[in-house]
Specification:
Blueprint: E1 7-13, H1 19-36, E2 41-45, H2 53-62, E3 67-72, H3 79-95, E4 100-103, H4 111-124
Length: about 120
């Protein structure tokens, strides 16, 4: 019987000076872990929140994950995802050469987003 490599997940958000916004990301990361039954989930922030991406990756690495999927908790593909995130991930690959890193697209374009917007519309009308 072969064991599949352990995969960790990082929910990567911008970060905010308003700590309750950062806490909201931490809560959704924990809820994602619970609902999807994922053992290793970390929130991470580009700036203004902790942990940063390197800290989240180090935490997952310390749990022995072989692969890390980074889900940008960003609505659109902007400058941070086009420029900053690839640079940060290259640094992670250098720091953790035994771990595979994968970045998913941002939320834009996902069919579930339309359902969320329609739900918000229904709540307001």
């Amino acid at each position: 019987m072969t064991t599949q490599p352990t995969t960790g997940l990082i929910l990567f958000a911008h970060g905010s000076r308003i700590e309750t916004a950062n806490e909201g990301v931490r809560v959704i990361a924990a809820e994602l872990a619970r609902v999807a039954a994922i053992d290793h989930v970390e929130p991470a922030f580009l700036e203004l929140g902790q942990p940063d991406l390197a800290g989240a990756a180090a935490s997952l690495a310390s749990h022995g994950v072989a692969r890390i999927v980074i889900i940008p908790y960003f609505l659109t593909l902007g400058l941070h995802l086009e420029r900053d995130l690839p640079i940060l991930v290259e640094g992670l690959r250098a720091a953790h050469p035994g771990i595979e890193f994968q970045i998913t697209p941002p939320l834009e374009g996902h069919p579930g987003l339309l359902a969320v917007l329609l739900d918000r519309w229904k709540q307001a009308t």
